[in-house]
Known about the structure:
Layout lengths: L5 H15 L11 H10 L5 H14 L3 H5 L3 H8 L5 H18 L8 H4 L7 H12 L8 H9 L8 H12 L3 H14 L20 H5 L2
Amino acid sequence: MKKATKKDIEFIKEKFIEHYSDAVTELNYSNEFELLIAIILSAQCTDKRVNIITPELFLTYPTPKDLANAKLEDIKTLLKSCSFFNNKSKNIINMAKLVEDEFNGVIPKNSKDLMKLPGVGNKTANVFLIELQGANLMAVDTHVFRVSHRLGLSDGKNVKETEEQLVKKLKDDLHIFHQAMVLFGRYICKAVKPECEKCFLTSVCKTKKTFKAN
Ligand code: SF4
């Protein structure tokens, strides 16, 4: 597949900033503890589903201390409609315990410490810092992976390679481009039937002909 030229990249950046510069996550939260839980739950699960689950969870366990003392079975019951709820239930309780024991009940704000927490890998840590601080980081989920390949911004074979290529090509304002590609992929450049007729990037797309032929 063709790669995006420097001119293409500038055009894509300009259009993403025009359309998505104020975009934020669609996960509902009111503090950093709730944000981190919502992001952990959103792995392999839709934001819509997470937003159905979290109000009762946050109401019953409003602080890391409350969640650290929760019974596993009670958390599993609350999370049962979420994918991988067994592991996620264990992870969020253990995450809360570690936050209590090692970080005085405060969620850490740097990648190194965040990744010490159960259920928090590189992507979760980056998404958390992007949302909370507008950090200049990239996080590659299924939407970012697909969109960046269709636009010729990456030919990375996996998430790590794709993240590295996007950081190198886009450089600044990565928090905007992350949110942009998530929302653009979710609502326009969809996996199965992308809405190319609504798209504002057709002139630089490297794959639209494939979809037109179908
Ligand atoms: S033209 Fe279609 S395939 Fe290309 S970026 Fe736009 S929505 Fe995606």
